[in-house]
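quick one, 624 residues, struct below
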Amino acid sequence: MSSSRSIGSSALKTVRLKYPKLFFLESCSNLADLKLIHGHMIRTHIIFDVLAASRLIAFCIDTNSGTSLIDYASRIFSQIQRPNLFIFNSMIRGHSGSKNPDQSFHFYVQLQRQGLLPDNLTFPFMVKSCTKSLCISMGSQAHCHIIKHGFEMDVYVQNSLVHMYATFGDTEAATLIFQRMYYANVVSWTSMIRGFNKCGDVESARKLFDKMPERNLVTWSTMISGYAQNNHFDEAVELFRVLQSEGVRANETVMVSVISSCAHLGALEVGERAHDYVVKYDMTLNLILGTALVDMYARCGSIDKAFRVFESLPERDALSWTALIAGLAMHGYSEKSLEHFGKMIGAGITPQDITFSAVLSACSHGGLVERGFEIFESMKREYRIEPRLEHYGCMVDLLGRAGKLEEAEKFVLEMPVKPNAPVWGALLGACRIHKNAEIGERVGKILIQLLPQHSGYYVLLSNIYANSKQWEKVTEMRQIMTAKGVKKPPGHSLIELDGRIHKFTIGDRSHPEIDKIERMWEEILMKIRAAGYMGNTAEALFDIDEEEKESALHRHSEKLAIAFGIMRSEEGTPIRIVKNLRVCEDCHTATKLISKVFGREFIVRDRNRFHHFRQGSCSCMDYW
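---
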């Protein structure tokens, strides 16, 4: 590589001495100036000097003036009778970073037809083109040519190959090259970590991360984003703490991953600290980071802060508006959600399909059937957006919540596309709420055929049978689940206190304060029973007796989290809980009573929405 650079430096000196006017290229800043210099070269016949022409092409490739210069470079290339290897390499390099990276292959074939041999500068950009094109077959062929021409041990070529195979998800091939490298630099290590993350193997990625002799910010960002993208949100937040303890300064990309992880965890305190970090280091509140903050505050139960961040954004696009609209809908503020949808359109922002999902969800939560259908029709008519299954699911949910079950079933059957499980699931959930066993049974059987291993639909159908006192069918459902090996995933609840996430799972006694928590729950139970609470065992396990059902209900993860929150938080502060499943009816009833008896506000995020419990009532109006 050093010899190639010295040759290039020598050639540049020669060109400068021979054609001093080419010095103007160094101060050239736009296409108009470039055309003047090019015109001068044509008039004075300098363009026919390969070395001089190569400087012109090199400028087109290296400049930051705009992507259109690669096209200009191609026109210059067509005027050169016998391009040298430097020019071919420049064209391959330029196209490797363009919108049409496969054009690099064309120039690679041409250079060979002219009898030129590729060098160690040719192949890294050839491999880059294969990577960007996501063309595995061309990548394999490029690797064969690398071996054929003897560059398989060049560190820059090896780095490009490791990156390519890691991007393709072929960690085995990437590892083989990585292990053969005489010197693996930080780029090689980071490419390997990225490859393992892409395949979902965050454990192998973390092992490499911990072994690295040196790390840069890109490495930290790759590992943290890998955790976030693979749903290891607590690990992402913890690694951010490690980053801070080692004195590394995070950038906007890292903070997006951290803040998104806080959103999924419902970790408001940690999210607020991350926001403070962004402000402290004067980071640019770009659209991606700003939208992530809006989404985080909304999903952590602080819709007021979400709104304040949104108002402070220097610019807003469809996604930032959608984050706010979806947040308002999730919290049950349907009218405000629709109001901001109107403001978005008034601001000249064209809504996307994800925006309509948020707006239709708002209509559903607010029971706004007519308005929902108006928006659904406008999506097709005015914005030419073809509804996706998600939009049809919102409409089914809208009709179902309003108790229009027959209309909802008819809507599903007349859909122009085949309904999927979430669409039918929305109708089954409505049947449970409105206790319609007839439609519920039809829908439940369809869902079990569609997804025979999905426990949630068996449980919902069992609950519908239980509510209609069809105990034989309840037993039959349980027997089918057992025969098929279907198991209900354990419910868990997360609660954040003092910047730490505490996780509670039914039957798990690993929490260090579990004995105190259970005693606290018994105290709570005694007080809400005095206020009229009676455990609803209808949704408990159906193959155990009533006494055991009641015991199981009282150890639901949400109740343990509530007890811990009351025990450890300051009076008057809201208690925020995040659940991985839908809130059961008994927990919902109990939490309403607890909010009244203890005078506390509970903000609970379940699989579907937020529940704000205050003074004995819930924001969902008992429909979820």
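The CA atoms of residues 476 and 482 lie 10 Å apart.
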